[in-house]
Amino acid sequence: MLLATFKLCAGSSYRHMRNMKGLRQQAVMAIGQELNRRALGGPTPSMWINQVRRRSSLLGSRLEETLYSDQELAYLQQGEEAMQKALGILSNQEGWKKESQQDNGDKVMSKVVPDVGKVFRLEVVVDQPMERLYEELVERMEAMGEWNPNVKEIKVLQKIGKDTFITHELAAEAAGNLVGPRDFVSVRCAKRRGSTCVLAGMATDFGNMPEQKGVIRAEHGPTCMVLHPLAGSPSKTKLTWLLSIDLKGWLPRSIINQVLSQTQVDFANHLRKRLESRPASEARC
User: Fold this and answer.
1) Among 75, 264, 268, residue whose Cα is nearest residue 188
2) Left if phi > 0, otherwise alpha if psi is -120 to 50, otherwise beta: which for 71?
3) Rg of the Cα trace of the chain?
4) Of 196, 222, 194, which Cα lies nearest the Cα of 83?
5) Secondary structure in 3-state letters for the chain
6) Residue 59 CB contacts under 8 Å (≥ 6 apart), including other chains
7) Which intervals hold domain START (predicted)?
8) 8 A C-beta contact, residue 199 and residue 188
9) What does the alpha-carbon distance between residue 189 and residue 201 come to, in Å, rounded to a whole number?
10) How far apart are CA 134 and CA 11, in angstroms?
11) Which of 25, 45, 70 is nearest to 191 (CA)?
12) Are 193 and 108 in contact (CB under 8 A)?
């Protein structure tokens, strides 16, 4: 199967086939699916993280150059960079300090990362299968404002390939309006490998979404959410959220830390309520 796929890819490089964009896309997808099937047969999340960080290849890069514009390639590279940086931070278990822990086990930790600043890490277990969380957080990303009061609106400005997005997020005021309205323009990258899903992102520039009057343009990143079934309980999901934000403006560090830590706790509570109130069958409609 893999040999035949590479022959298909090689054929798409001949002059009389160069304009057959659909064939090149099929080749890219087929190679990706076959390599994933062979290399990722159900590893643990830590193994998967290492495989994601090593998976870029010269062949993939050359094929992508024929499918995307220079700007789209830059966004793809930026999304990949955000994922690798965020996963690298999560994989380093040293230096984390507990910020808070709820009665239900939800835990927020933090540490200072060189060249990034203070980052926050939320770890929760959600009594729903991973597929449900993936639907709500990735496939229904633009509906987040319906259930998360900390988010007024999320819009997908551009989709690049099957797993990279440019988004605009308008956040609500926080800390009793001490933190005024912020918005974010980000590149987000969603990857699924076996039983694990990662949604990563970081700030980017997008010409069609300039800064808005009365709203401070803040910056994400690198940030990510990692989802995988809870060991021994596949109907439950372990969610880990790495949050790194520069809110901009003149804000005391103590207020920023309080806001970001509480934002993660609130997010977990709102997500649970959303999943409980919206059955899986309804979510897929």
Assistant:
1) 75
2) alpha
3) 20
4) 222
5) CHHHHHHHHHHCCCHHHCCCHHHHHHHHHHHHHHHHHHHCCCCCHHHHHHHHHHCCCHHHHHHHHCCCCHHHHHHHHHHHHHHHHHHHHHHCCCCCEEEEECCCCCEEEEEEECCCEEEEEEEEEECCCHHHHHHHHHHCHHHHHHCCCCEEEEEEEEEECCCEEEEEEEECCECCCCECCEEEEEEEEEEEECCEEEEEEEECCCCCCCCCCCCEECEECCEEEEEEEECCEEEEEEEEEEECEECCCCCCHHHHHHHHHHHHHHHHHHHHHHHHHCCHHHHCC
6) 9, 31
7) 67-280
8) yes
9) 6
10) 36
11) 45
12) no
* Contact yes or no for 271/134 (Cβ under 8 A): no
φ, ψ of residue 237 to 5 degrees: the values are -125, 135
- Return the CATH class of domain 78-257+265-277: alpha beta
**Residue indicated by tokens 């955000």:** 82
Tell me the domain boundaries of the chain.
78-257+265-277
Q: Which of 190, 147, 189 is nearest to 172 (CA)?
A: 147
